[in-house]
Design goal:
Strand order of the largest sheet: 1-3-2
Organism: Agromyces sp. G08B096
Largest sheet: 3 strands, antiparallel
Number of strands: 9
GO molecular function: cadmium ion sensor activity; DNA binding; DNA-binding transcription factor activity; lead ion binding
Distance between the termini: 50 Å
GO biological process, one term: response to cadmium ion
Pfam family, one: HTH_20
Number of domains: 2
Order of helices and strands: HHEHHEEHHEEHHEEHEEH
Radius of gyration: 18 Å
Oligomer: single chain
Strand content: 5-15%
Structural class: alpha+beta
Protein name: Helix-turn-helix domain-containing protein
């Protein structure tokens, strides 16, 4: 067994309020303690105590801006750990129509730290594999970027990736709603940056949900049609 204290981060994540705060930060945002307290359903002093433990444990970082401190996940490895736990966590019963709509929206498209997750992310991953841009992904493992000259890879900006050192160009990240890997790593970050920057996806206010714009809905529908309506079919490239 590795000479590491696995119980330490597990204990930090295992407390319900801290788990809620970590999940709220999965979209890569930095949030003040007041927002995290509200999201976790705890008082401000309780939230401050929990956040101090998360910072001391290396799971969260804190940056002061004016009178406020803003908290963020310490890095993509923390996001991967939380997402992996979400994939094996039991599903809470849906107790309201609003919760049902929220769950459906997040399952469709959401940010997973700095990359796209959800059904649309898997559609894109399968289309890129079909185009020959990516080798089939394996959850939790570095992937292989085969070619970036195809129309879809070019449209998503994968031909402009810049080596960032230790971070892999592609990594398979297990999607907790679909139980299959989507694209993470530098390629995943570039894909999300491109889709949001080009106005195909819009960020939701208050959570990590992503909503296709009118242009985005047409683009993804054309992508699905070009792939024969399945995730394993041959992919074409919708117009911008």
């Amino acid at each position: 067994m590795p000479d590491v204290d696995l119980a330490a981060p597990a204990k930090l994540i295992g407390e319900p309020a801290r788990a809620a705060m970590l999940a709220a930060l999965l979209d890569g945002r930095s949030l003040p303690a007041s927002d995290l307290a509200a999201l976790a359903g705890v008082s401000a002093p309780t939230a401050s105590a929990h956040l101090a433990q998360l910072v001391d444990g290396g799971l969260v970082t804190a940056v002061r801006s004016g009178r406020h401190r803003y908290f963020a996940l310490a890095g993509p490895e923390v996001a991967r750990a939380v997402e992996a736990l979400l994939a094996i966590a039991p599903t809470r019963p849906v107790v309201s129509y609003a919760r049902s709509r929220e769950a459906k929206r997040l399952a469709e498209a959401r940010s997973c730290y700095d990359h796209l997750a959800g059904r649309l992310a898997l559609d894109l991953a399968d289309a890129l594999v079909a185009e020959g841009a990516l080798a089939p992904l394996r959850a939790g493992e570095p992937g292989v970027l085969l070619a970036t000259s195809g129309p879809l890879a070019t449209r998503l900006g994968l031909d402009r990736l810049v080596d960032a050192g230790r971070r892999p160009a592609v990594r398979g990240c297990l999607d907790w709603t679909e139980r299959r890997p989507h694209v993470a790593g530098l390629a995943g970050a570039r894909i999300l940056e491109t889709l949001v920057g080009d106005g195909l996806l819009a960020r939701a206010r208050g959570d990590r949900g992503l909503t296709p714009t009118e242009a985005g809905a047409a683009w993804f529908a054309e992508l699905a049609g070009a792939s024969g309506g399945t995730r394993t079919g041959r992919a074409g490239t919708p117009a911008a």
